[in-house]
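Dear colleague,

As promised, here are the two records you asked about, laid out in our usual form so they can be pasted straight into your sheet.

NAME FIELD: protein one
SEQUENCE, THEN STRUCTURE:
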Amino acid sequence: MSRLAAAATLAAATTSAVPPESTQQALGYPSLFLLVLIGALVPVVPTGALVSSAAVVAFHQTAPFAMALVFVTASLAAFLGDAALYWLGRRGLRSRGGSRWLEAIRSRAPEERLEQARGKLADHGVAVLVLSRLVPGGRIPVMLACLMAEWPSRRFARGNVAACLAWAATYQVIGIVGGSLFPEPWEGVVVAVVLTVAISAFPGLVRRFR
């Protein structure tokens, strides 16, 4: 429910009066970068919905390279956030008493999903890391599996580059689809937010049904 409430708040904020393009660019890209970065460290911010919403707004802009800037901003922020969280996790592993960051990562990775992630990581390596960002709820268990397998930060970073690029591209496509369906940006934002929330909630609903 927290994700749904956050996404609803995002939609309500975006559907208010739309500022001029210059103001959108001056405020939008830094805000997108900061929120995605925070969302990578503390997974309570609906980062997928943010990227899709930003893509909708960029789709309706006349400024050149607007879509490319959304892609670069989102993927770079996601990569830096993941890299920082992984570094904090490795630091916690080397510490005798652990760390609150490492405990936070462990608390978000149920034992069953962690064991699945460790098995897949052992079999398929970096490919699992790349796909983990595209599967709702898959990023943290795979990251913890990489930590437990003692992957060096450099190896994790190499795989995470492709993961963040694929993630940003996927949610940007959702935004483009939403933006192309309606003439007004706010209508496309609502569609994009609903789609991203539905995608995020679907695996959890399947697990509860089972």
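NAME FIELD: protein two
SEQUENCE, THEN STRUCTURE:
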Amino acid sequence: MIYSLKGKLIVKEMNFAVIECGGVGYGCKTSYNTVAALGAVGSEAMLYTSLYVREDAVELFGFATQQELNCFRLLISVSGVGPKAAVSILSDMTPEKFAFYAASGDSKAFTRTKGIGAKTAQRIVLELKDKISSESISGSVSGDVMQLSSVSSPEAASNVSDALAALMVLGYSQGEAAPILGKLDPALSTQELITETLRLLSANKR
């Protein structure tokens, strides 16, 4: 399995990039967001990858962040959603917005992507919400989040709960995300909570 690629960027197109590693050029299909995040041709680049195998083809997909890769894998796990549709969705929204829409049940947001109809969008939301661990949105949310919710308005408590669910869509555990969420300003919006938590999680890994 090819987990990631790091080397010289030799091709950069709309939905495609080639990274040369050890004299071999690996072509990766990807999203607009990842292409935009890559440097100029000739610079060093790194992509997190997913190998998609079917009867008539073997395709490599690459993404600038682990969060976007996780979103891609979640999307292709939904019945009726293939890699082409998944890349289109991730070209239209950041991983943070994807997670927010999935966790909040906003199926309409997915229909803004060309080729994604209402039924497919509803299926994406329903199947992905099922993948979120039930304890994150039931009564057993960790003490850090419960403490913040108890001193905040109902709207703030809802924002925190939605942010936690979205972070779990991105692949983080409740134990990783909840302590950080519990320390943030409860006046922040759900998307701001997601973005700030991701920033702090990334900083803690350095």
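A couple of things worth noting about protein two: The longest helix spans residues 154-169. Strands lie at 4-13, 16-21, 24-29, 44-54, 57-63.

Best,
R.
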